[in-house]
């Protein structure tokens, strides 16, 4: 299959977890499209790596990149990236040199490889921080970490729904575990609620972007911050804030529903708790 004007499509790309909407994409559907096109599959796993199941090799991802600051919970500033041999071959077969020094993966690979040809000065402190964060990920276990994220989101959803609020993503299977989008109830001012949550409870949630600005809140559950204590605190804080803004809701219903949800799921473990 060819793009307009007879040009071949080389890449199919997607954001695995769409932070802007709280939607998770099915990588396998995009793999099929890429195969039909004879194209490489590029996956942005910034919001998903170490938070929800992802298997680069099994899912047939040719290029996968992420960020250090989300579910890995290292400081921002690094972007882990992996490419497979198909991509290496495509890069080596380039007729034109890469125009951007910064984005030239062929040079970066010569730097990482045996030749050690200079490409950039390594951010040593970030590399140490990343190593420590990955050690914590492995100590917890990737699968246990995925489960922790899922369990905490289930409790959050139970709490939010018990408060009479609705989720932006109606189909449960499409919901991104690491970002929960909540519809802002009619008559409630987005900015005021987020300001009060921050000022009074030191909790920061995000608003909507573009056409859904003012219509949704986005609650991130990523890595270290994805903990039972934070869920319960957030639900209590949201209830108090909404109440102050004039939204009438059943007292304590959100926290009660979340506690009940935790009781029905496996025993939650606080991150960093001694075993
Ligand atoms: C899905 C996704 N991709 C890419 C980015 C950009 O990451 P960075 O801010 O590290 O450049 C973000 C940031 O929030 C994101 O959520």
Which secondary structure elements does this structure contain, and how are they paired or packed?
Layout: E1 11-15, E2 17-18, E3 23-24, H1 27-37, E4 40-44, E5 63-65, E6 81-83, H2 85-92, H3 105-112, H4 124-140, H5 142-162, E7 179-183, H6 190-201, E8 206-207, E9 216-220, H7 228-244, H8 253-264
Parallel strand pairs: 1-4, 4-5
Antiparallel strand pairs: 2-3, 5-6, 7-9, 8-9
Helix pairs in contact: 4-5, 5-7, 5-8, 6-7, 7-8
The protein binds pyridoxal-5'-phosphate (PLP).
The site of pyridoxal-5'-phosphate (PLP) has 8 residues, from loops.
What this model shows, in words?
This protein is of the alpha/beta class and 275 residues long. The protein has helices spanning 27-37, 85-92, 105-112, 124-140, 142-162, 190-201, 228-244, 253-264, and strands at 11-15, 17-18, 23-24, 40-44, 63-65, 81-83, 179-183, 206-207, 216-220. The longest helix is centred in the middle third of the chain and has 21 residues, at 142-162. It is elongated, with a radius of gyration of 21 Å. The model has no long low-confidence stretch (mean pLDDT 94). Pyridoxal-5'-phosphate binds next to loops.
């Amino acid at each position: 299959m060819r793009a307009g004007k007879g040009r071949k499509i080389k890449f199919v790309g997607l954001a695995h977890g769409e932070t802007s909407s709280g939607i998770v994409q099915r990588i396998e559907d995009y793999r099929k499209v890429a195969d039909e096109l004879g194209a490489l599959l590029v996956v942005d796993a910034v919001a998903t790596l170490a938070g929800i199941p992802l298997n680069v090799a099994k899912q047939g991802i040719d290029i996968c990149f992420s960020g250090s600051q989300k579910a890995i919970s290292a400081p921002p500033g690094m972007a882990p990236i992996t490419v497979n041999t198909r991509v290496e071959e495509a890069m080596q077969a380039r007729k034109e040199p890469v125009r951007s020094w910064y984005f030239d993966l062929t040079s970066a690979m010569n730097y990482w490889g045996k030749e050690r040809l200079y490409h950039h000065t390594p951010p040593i402190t970030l590399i140490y921080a990343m190593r420590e964060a990955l050690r914590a990920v492995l100590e917890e276990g990737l699968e246990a970490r995925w489960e922790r994220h899922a369990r905490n989101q289930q409790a959050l959803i139970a709490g939010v729904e018990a408060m009479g609020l609705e989720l932006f993503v109606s189909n449960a299977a499409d919901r991104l575990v690491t970002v929960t989008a909540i519809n802002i109830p009619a008559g409630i001012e987005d900015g005021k609620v987020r300001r009060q949550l921050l000022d009074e409870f030191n909790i920061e949630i995000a608003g909507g972007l573009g056409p859904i600005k003012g219509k949704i809140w986005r609650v991130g559950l990523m890595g270290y911050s994805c903990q039972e204590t934070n869920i319960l605190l957030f639900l209590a804080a949201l209830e108090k804030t909404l109440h102050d803004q004039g939204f009438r809701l059943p007292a304590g219903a959100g926290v009660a529903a979340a506690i009940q949800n935790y009781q029905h799921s496996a025993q939650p473990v606080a991150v960093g708790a001694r075993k």
